[in-house]
Amino acid sequence: MARRPAGDQIARLGARLAVGLVLLASLLASGCGSDSGPATIADLAPAPDAAADDKGPAILDGCRSGTVHTEAWACVYGDPASEKTVVLWGDSHAMQFTPPLIELADRRGWRLLAMFRGSCLTAEVAYRPACDSWRANALDRIERERPEMVVTATDTGNGYALWQRGVRLTRAASEPLLRQGYARTLRRLKRATGGRTGRVVLLRDLLRAGFRPPDCLLDHPEDLPACDFKGFRKNPPGFDLAAARRVGGVKVVDPSEVVCPAGLCNSARNGIVVYRDTTHISATYAATLAGWLGEQVDSLP
């Protein structure tokens, strides 16, 4: 369980880790020419048997709310005194993009607030009482902050099946309610950013693997391309994208375009383990996305 900080905290340890991840990723990427990385697993970072724990600075700094907490605390990265506040908010599918956002905050002088709760639905619809309270508090906090930009992401898989009148709905029956609820969330975020076009950035949920890529790499230490795979989506196109299409002015950014070009995903690329499990990228790989992500959000210098 994540520890409870005494209010917001200036996340110095994690920020240093993020800088290290960016430097490591740059060195690895510049030294390897193959899209699927080196010939063996010996030089991969992180090591495949440790990839599951490569979750990045947000975990180190305690930015993720524990399951018993409902307070909307945040870690602060970048320039704490900056007049440009950017919020990164969501579940673990948002948290995985902390490394590139920290890099951008450092480059551009943002005050980055990182707010997460694992396995907590950010769509405005009843899910679990503690999660619902945290979501409400987080949305209120974001509205008070009046940020220049909000970056958000959510898991769109089968975990967010809803309940109605004490009966668990199927995931398919939950889908229209999730789309409606997430549209409400995006509208609130848009109002919080002054209604300006492009200031709410939805990072579309990533393509998934049908197996654990690090395990495959361990099983094929001399043949890393054997672990390449065709990514897929559960419940396509995803309630995140469907909701964004209903809400004008939300900028949709699809990381799968670079993580899995043309839908083909590498388990390892340029010396880096890409996926740490079936649905999350490693923090080491995420750090390589800073330049690309910066191009996507150039509306905020």
Helix residue percentage: 25-40%
Tell me the fraction of residues in β-strands, as a range. 15-25%
Rg is 18 Å
Number of strands: 14
Largest sheet: 8 strands, mixed
Task: Summarize the structure in short.
The protein has helices at 12-31, 57-60, 92-95, 98-108, 129-145, 171-192, 213-219, 239-246, 256-259, 283-286, 290-296; strands at residues 9-10, 64-65, 75-78, 85-90, 111-117, 149-153, 163-164, 167-168, 200-203, 229-230, 250-253, 264-265, 268-269, 272-273.
Tell me about this structure:
This protein is of the alpha/beta class. It has a single domain, classed as SGNH hydrolase (Rossmann fold, 3-Layer(aba) Sandwich). It is 36% helix and 15% strand. It is built from eleven helices and 14 strands. The protein has helices at 12-31, 57-60, 92-95, 98-108, 129-145, 171-192, 213-219, 239-246, 256-259, 283-286, 290-296, and strands spanning 9-10, 64-65, 75-78, 85-90, 111-117, 149-153, 163-164, 167-168, 200-203, 229-230, 250-253, 264-265, 268-269, 272-273. Strands 1, 2, 3, 4, 5, 6, 9 and 11 form an eight-stranded mixed beta sheet that branches. A two-stranded antiparallel sheet has the order 7-8. Helix 1 packs across helix 4 and helix 6 (171-192) crosses helix 8. The model is unreliable at 1-6 and 30-34 (pLDDT under 50).
